[in-house]
Amino acid sequence: MSTISREEVARLAGLARIDLTESELTRLAGELDVIVEAVATVSRVATDDVPATSHPLPLHNVFRPDVVTATLPVEEALAAAPAAEDGRFAVPQILEED
Amino acid sequence: MTTEATPLVDYDDAVRRYDPVLGIEVHVELGTASKMFDGAPTEFGAPPNTQTTPVSLGLPGSLPVVNEKAVEWAVLIGLALNCEIAESCRFARKNYFYPDLPKAYQISQYDEPIAHDGWVDVELEDGTTVRVEIERAHMEEDAGKNTHVGGAAGRIHGAEYSLVDYNRAGVPLVEIVTKPITGVGARAPEVARAYVQTLRDMFRALGVSEARMERGNVRADVNVSLRPSPDAPLGTRTETKNVNSFRSVERAVRFEISRQAGVLDSGAAVVQETRHWHEDTGITTPGRVKSDAEDYRYFPEPDLVPIVPDRAWVEGLRASLPEMPAARRRRLQAAWGYSDAEMRDVVNAGALDLVEATVAAGASPAAARKWWMGELARTANEQGASLEELPVTPAQVAELQGLVDAGRLNDKLARQVLAGVLAGEGSPQEVVAARGLEIVSDDGALLAAVDEALAAQPDVVEKIRGGNLGPVGAIIGAVMKATRGQADAARVRELVLERVKG
């Protein structure tokens, strides 16, 4: 039984701005389905005394002091920009108002 | 910009027939030295892209590390808002594509905010207090700044390209979200404004942000919905984004109430959407309709471990909370004996700190208020400056008043001395010495001037001898003129009467 539809994959691909072909959509729907099913199996095994885990490391409160460190020179910051102007990254026009 | 055909409903009419409900999201930029997740500085106004690191730019392989001070200040804000501080919380990724976010996600908090379920009392101008319930306060990072080039000025539509400055990307933010604010009726716009103002004052009192609205340190998103009566379920809301002055908050809420009432009156439904506030025309226009673009696919941030605020540390912070602005205003008003109107004027003029410091330096509360709200307010107004920007210190104002109290200056001379201080001529004492402005109460000098004035007006002497004291004023005036206003008027009067009778 498939739980992930091609439409759902297409929607997610749209949200993630990934351009997928029809055959890729079909293939990924199947692959994601396997993953979701595997997770569901784990969920069935987990009992109430096993809390959901987002961070497997037994660590918390890892901080840095509020201290200024070295910054990138502007030229370096802009080095990977496709285009730059006045020290800023030039990007395609934004069609939608924020 | 879409033109909307539905006519606005007169505001008073709208709030008679509909019950407005508010929800306000306030973002405050914390005034930490470095960013939320890296050591880039946060200073305002630096040349573009000079305050970045690989983390701020989202370069591959870079990893965020949480700024300890930012967490501390987020907890302080939560405590000041009477919130519960989470036993444990984590960061989450909010995924969306916009060029001001170099990573294509914002690190925020989603299901586990650091603070939740609080409240804050908001005082309206007439003294009414409204309690606003707080849903949550969470930590996140600010985005970069876009400038749109080409096309119509200031409008994004029609822009040919955009320029991005990432100096602000990664600056720590705390977002504070209210629960629905109900039961305020026609006062909704005023409550919205007072709420944002209360938070701004609180941020400053806590010392966690300069909280300058004009720099975007504090930004508000305002949700408004209408329902036919307070018993009805909540109506569909709109969210007006980035309303960035107190006055705009008030105007935007007012406009949305009139607009939504028009939509409902026409029998249509309010569309749940993001709207944009236009400062120049005082209206909101539709932005994007809530849709897939709002599906942020949040998930726990794998690069950051949870934050577990130590309970003793939290209690230590609670104990260190400074006096909140409303409590401070009440305390100072009682101590100074100001009327409500006097206090409000001082607060609204931004003179509270200055008056407090002037009183601390020895002036009476009445005198301190008189200087700051009178001569100095006028000067600031003329120069288009704030009181704080004037080149005079509270200590100097107190010193000036001290000279008046000691009888060494009268009001007129004191104003001249103040002008000298403002002109950079030094302290009041120095100006008095340099300009020779002290009151003359030395009888020898005054008698010469009195005799001269009496000799010049012999008829006046007769009148006074005849029991008509009215013309004494003319003689005093002449003496004042001769001494360039520096004569001790009371002493001059005594001398005139002595001379005439003698």
Q: What's the CATH C level of the domain at 6-45 in chain A?
A: Mainly Alpha
Rg of chain B (C-alpha, Å) = 31 Å
pLDDT < 50 stretches of chain A: none
CATH topology of the domain at 6-45 in chain A: Histone, subunit A
Series of secondary-structure elements of chain A, N-terminal to C-terminal = HHEHEE
CATH architecture of the domain at 6-45 in chain A: Orthogonal Bundle
Largest sheet of chain B, in brief, is: 9 strands, mixed
Strand count, sense and closure of the main sheet of chain A?
Answer: 2 strands, antiparallel
What amount of the residues of chain A lies in strands?
A: 5-15%
Largest interface: A-B, 41 and 63 residues
Number of contiguous helices of chain A:
3
**Quaternary form:** heterodimer
| N- to C-terminal distance of chain A | 41 Å
Give the CA-CA distance, first to last residue of chain B: 87 Å
Roughly what is the average pLDDT of chain A, rounded to an integer? Answer: 88
What general outline of chain A do the C-alpha atoms trace? Answer: flat
Query: What is the total tally of β strands of chain B?
Result: 15
